[in-house]
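User: My collaborator and I are trying to settle a disagreement about how two of our proteins should look. Neither of us wants to argue from intuition anymore, so we agreed to look at predicted structures for both before our next call. Could you fold the first one, then the second, and keep them clearly separated?

Assistant: That sounds like a sensible way to settle it. I'll keep them separate. The first protein:
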Amino acid sequence: MGLFSTLKEQIRKWKLRGRNPSDVFTTYYESNKWGDADSRSGKGSNMPNTEMIRAALPGVVRDLGAQSFLDLPCGDYFWMKTVDLGVAQYTGGDIVAPMIAQNQKAHGREGVRFEVIDLIQGPVPGHDIVFVRDCLVHLSNAHIAAAIRNIKASGATWLITTTNPETQENVDISTGQWRALNLMLPPFSFGQAERMIDESMPDLKGSRKDKFMGVWRVSELPDLSALE
């Protein structure tokens, strides 16, 4: 990253610091900040960039024996609506209220519902699986710690979330920015995932060569309260 880009990111970090995450991500949604033609959740949520997770996820859910699935944040439900998870209850949660209202109106039905859920402030409702894709990478370390605390308090059995295992150092950001995260390294130190779902598609814009979804038992996640 060049000097100008570094300075630009520092200015952005300063501007985002202290802003309400709900306001930040609602603004991103309403302005289509990431500029994807298909999904307001960004290029990582379009069909090409979700090809691998769409193919793998039903089998993972089946192997884990899950009957309830919390997709948090669910974004605009663009790609997930094409996936048959085989569960009795799918809940899409997000901090962006107008998006949730649109999702519920367009896609809500028996076994599929959408709710405003704040992963940072909580509470997080209990489900067998909490699926957190492309989210923690946008949160400050303190907000990641709060999110993990809320997930642990929910009583969920499994967490499936994005991790970048080739990343050598976890830097802090202001919520609303982005950086790669290796959740197996400090200050998070999740330990080895029970399973890794490969999402690496480096030839596609919006993807990376080391993008995975790690599967961890929620009961074994570390206490990160020192980061809050």
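The second protein, kept apart from the first:
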Amino acid sequence: MSRCWKLGDNVSTDEILPFQYMVLTDPAELGRHILGNVKPGFAERLTRGDILVGGLNFGYGSSREHAPLALKGAGIGAVVARSFARIFFRNCINIGLPAIACPSAADGVSEGDSVEIDLRSGEIWNTARNAKYSFVPFPRFIMEYVENGGLINTLNKRNSNPA
């Protein structure tokens, strides 16, 4: 079970991680600063595995990997939104952070709700509201990235275990 944190439409990468922290590289340290200018003290209230829920165009702005890396470093288990900026979505997948486009969940979930996500079946259960939302499951190769913690880990695993 994961607790949800709700944001609105058009959340930019600069809001997710303020620009002054772009010089950092450690994911855990980056994670201590997520949403710092929008929701001060937000990172301290998180529990590992919490879900971030957004609206339209989540993650627009710069193409830097810092914002999704900071979310992962803070312990965010997945990001669910009505839609994602394309590069942000791909950066999430490349580091193994599930980014799930599910408009019905983005609309139906409230902050504080508890949800369970099944990436394989494409279902999100909101236990607080006794509701189920469906999304298109990831293709097999993306599931492999998520399961292995990202693209680089997947490639390293493949190279160490050639078929």
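Some points you might bring to the call about the second protein. The chain has a mean pLDDT of 95. Helices lie at 13-16, 27-31, 42-45, 66-73, 86-94, 103-108, 140-148, 151-160.
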